[in-house]
Structures are given as C-alpha cells and as structure tokens.
Design goal:
Rossmann fold, 5-stranded parallel sheet, globular, CheY-like chemotaxis protein, ST_Response_Regulator, Sig_transdc_resp-reg_receiver, phosphoprotein, CheY-like_superfamily
C-alpha cells in the first residue's frame, strides 16, 4: 500500500503527540498528521474531512487517548459510532493511552476499536499496525531509522 493520506492523533498531551508524530514521520507512512486535543475537536475535524468534503481527506488511522478534558475517548467513540460515514471512509481506531485501568480496557471492548495500546507509540508497533491493517510494509523504513 502507498502512504496513508492522513493520520489523526487525539490527545491532550503535547509530549505524547510530539512523540507519536515523530514516529509516524520517521516511518514516512503518512502524507499528513493532524492533532486534536480532545474528542470534540476530533469530531469536528472528522465532520469537516469525512462528511462535508470528499472522503479523500478523511483520516485513515486515529490514535485516541482515553482521558482528556472537554470530551474523553469514550465519549468520542459513542458519538463517532453514530456518525454517518461511508464504510470505505471509516478509519481504523487505536486507543493509545497511559491507562492500565481494567475498567477502561473492558469499556473499550464495547466499541469498534482495533487495538488498545499503552503509550508511547513505538516504531516497531506502528510498523506492525500498518502491516496488519493497511498491508503497508514499513520494514524498509524501520531498518533505515534504527
């Protein structure tokens, strides 16, 4: 697969966003990396890019934190699942969080998420995710940056 058009990071932690963006950039796997600092901002971006415009701008991959102000990850998922998105424009959602609370893990299983991972995002894990969900072979990029 070619590079992803867009990846969306949804996290209020600027350091975590910096690390995740850096990992994505080093693997050279996305044309664009967007950042939303809470679920409400993310829903607004998705509405703009996936509903009101052609789905070409829709994020293909979302990394979503659990604990955020304004709207947390679970509130985002509840509203996101009610959005009228075309099947081919529904992004893969990965929960990326510092939470190890078993209640959060159990609650996450009620939603259509692909994975529940602990921060920080690492190159090797991103390469595995890209291969698993997008058939993107990041091994050459991975070897080049290690």
């Amino acid at each position: 697969m070619e590079r992803l058009n867009c990846v969306l990071l949804v996290d209020d932690d600027n350091s975590a966003n910096f690390i995740s963006k850096n990992v994505i950039d080093k693997l050279d796997c996305a044309d664009q990396v967007l950042v939303a600092h809470n679920g409400r901002e993310a829903l607004h971006m998705i509405t703009e890019r996936c509903v009101t415009q052609p789905a070409d701008d829709c994020p293909q991959l979302i990394f979503l934190d659990v604990k955020m102000p304004v709207m947390d990850g679970f509130e985002f998922l509840r509203e996101f699942e009610g959005m009228n998105l075309q099947a081919n424009s529904r992004p893969i959602i990965i929960m990326l969080t510092t939470s190890t609370n078993p209640v959060d893990v159990q609650l996450a299983q009620q939603f259509k998420i692909a994975e529940f991972l602990n921060k920080p995002l690492k190159r090797e894990k991103l390469a595995q995710l890209l291969d698993k969900y997008f058939k993107f072979d990041a091994s050459s990029s991975l070897q080049a940056v290690t």
